[in-house]
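Our preliminary data section would be incomplete without showing what the modeling component actually yields. Below, a chain of 876 amino acids is followed by its predicted structure, encoded as tokens that our downstream tools consume directly.
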Amino acid sequence: MRPKKDSYIFTVAERVLLLLMEYHAVRDFEVPVELTQLGIGRLLKVRRGNISRYLTRLMDGRLVQALKGRPKGSKVRTLYYVLTENGYSEAKRLRSLAAKASITVHFPSQEIRTNVYDASAILPGKPSMTEVITAVKDGGMEVTGFVRERAKAGGGMFKASAEMPTVERFYGREVELERIGAWFDSKESRILSLTGVAGIGKTTLLARAASSWLSRSHVFWFRVREFDTPSSIAQSISVFLSTIENAPVPQAIAERGVDLGLMTYTLTECVANTSIVFVFDDIYKASGEVLNVVRAITDTVLGNPHIKLATTSRKSVKLADGRTLLSGAQTAMKIFGLQPPAAAYILPRGIGDYGDAAKNLIKKTSGHPLLLRMAFTGADGDRDASKYIHEEIVAGATEHEGRAIALLSLLRRPVAKVDLYNLGIGDDVLESIDERGLVAKDDAGNYEIHDMIKEYLIGRMGQREIAAMHRAIGEMYSSLPGELFAVEAIHHHSKARNYTAGVSLLIDHGDTIIAYGMSSQIAESVRELYENHIPEKHHAGKYYRIAGDIFEQACDWDEALKAYDEAGEGEDRAQAILALTRKAGLLFRVGKLGDAKRAALRAIKLSEHSDTTEGCGEAYYSYGNLAFEERNIPEAVRAFKKAIEISRRTGSARLEAQATYGLGRVEHAQGHLRQAIKSKEKAITLFEKINDKVELCKVLTSIGNTYQADGDSKRALENFEKAIHQCEEIGNPLLLAYSRANAGAMSIKLPNFEKAENNLIKALKVFEGLGEKAGMSAVCLNLSLVYGKKGISDKALSFAEKGWKIAMERGIPRDIAKANAILGETLLSQKRHREAKKYLRAALSYAKSMGDARFIKEMEKDLMSLASESRPTMGR
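Predicted structure:
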């Protein structure tokens, strides 16, 4: 494979392998032109016919394989070439040889000895290793000629620095491009200062604009780095000017000790009649010496009508005095996130169609391109994003900035500036990390780290550091009034393993947190406290009862029952009574009616032998609920009225609201719908007064059912939708599922079967996940009705049988009656008369035992209809 005469350090075949290795991770839907036969030949400077022979030999040796795909910018599928496993191993071996192959790089004013692998890092434009290998002959390469040839490869009369980025994808920014275009055309404005947070797209925007300038001007592009010196800038300018036709190589500019006056004079002479735009990307990284060089170039720009200067930066950098800005010679421009239509293009297919999901995500990230990319892959899932965060955003932070970044990354919600002062974060630090592109502000002006960067930052912190930060945040939130801050304090204390402080806050604020429906926000934290801390005896009862309430709201019922048992066995009789009443309700929910009744009666018995009248009221309320479910109406009414009497004596608005709601449910069952609506409206008023959002959700759903029974479909649906909104706000999945189930049942009657099916399926998924059998049974039966109306008989029967089976397991007469009725009607619609008759008779039997006149009438009507359909007619 090696030619007879070859001044290159690698053969053509070896260079092909090294080139293909650079594109080893390519995917078939984004094939670069460089992998086609034509692209490989151009890069290696080998004629197409010759490169074809080399590729054939490599394929015969099983080092390369040919695939078919559509290269970028092409509408035609063609062959492209990739490495096989053997080829990749061989290319790795060659790369290790490149790291050892010593070459001499000839700059205009100096020579540097390095290896092929590291050479690209010191060359203008950061060329690929393949380009370097191709340019090296007889053990060396001449930089001026290399840059000139590289620039010529782009074609055109005007040249750009090889370091200028190529923009392949560009979305939106039409207004910004128009403003930059106006600046380029302006005769007055000579300097453009483009600012914006990290990753917002400053470089991409300016590179896009600069690509349009090449038809009228040369573009010198220099990306400023922290280690750059006046000499490195002068060297780059020298190499660039040498590529411009008829421009002499200005050796005076490239000397090690840069004389600013001499450089300015020489530069003015060299470009006297040449149109050039000098671009300094990331100018904020420049040292003081480098800034002096740029300011000297600025003086040249202001004195020459053919030259302009543009910079990008995270913060404003002064290049000229204030008079320059006031005279209109300098244009300052700050860019922000992408507008929603443009930002949507960055999102994956299916989400980027600018629907609700896309709108919410774009609003959350403020249209920040980097954050939008990371939203789906995570910081560690996107190597380029991860590298950018490390090198451009986090790296170089001071000790105070690092601490502030760490604290903000552990916060769960935006925090006010005044509270950040309590954490030792001052205005100067906030301004600094804001410039790094780390901080987001909400509409109220509160601060937070972007969610997509938090994962990256936390993953690089030590456990001790994280614990210390959580403790500091917990103490800060503990000093602030209100339950919202108590929730955050409990969370951070548990993360810091400061369990004593967390338990103390839970005992003080737990009941209010539960009433506000915030249990799901601290369920994990409370679980950690529960597993790792044993409270003092005199606080144990209340602590365990509150923990049980939080677990119940978070739908962790096993843990809730354990906590209630702990409270029930404690010395605090008042908390034991409350725990038993909550346990009774939970046992009923999981289908253990007998155990629930025993727990409620035990609570009543305890309360009668104690001075805790409020606990006694809750016990009666719990017992009334159980009696109502058994359809023991007189006993339920007695218990609810007893609870109301106790609530008025003790002044407990919550207990009065609960018992009033209970009476409303009884009145609904008795058919006194108007009275039931009045009772439930009174309960709503009381719950709104004490801001108990959880109970409010239950009553809104219940009053919707009553309006539905009364024939007022509009008000019924309004209340169901209010309940859904309220449940979404407090984040309680169980209550939300019940609200959706009721809204679905209402939609069947409207009728709106698509909406009904959507709500019912969502509710069923939650009920199945939580093991909520009462909800599962009702939803399955309603889905049977939906599919029956839609004519999907197999699904209708399947859901009817599933709902019937669950209802029989639970043993609640009312539910069994409804399940028998729906299963019977489903079988009747499929002409299975004998089976239908069996279930309809069972439904009638249960209806008679409950004394439900309306239900009895409906069942008798269905049975008469069945008898007429199955009766033989004359002539058969």
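The longest helix spans residues 633-650. Residues 1-6, 349-354, 870-876 have pLDDT under 50 and may be disordered. Preliminary results of this kind motivate Aim 1 of the renewal.
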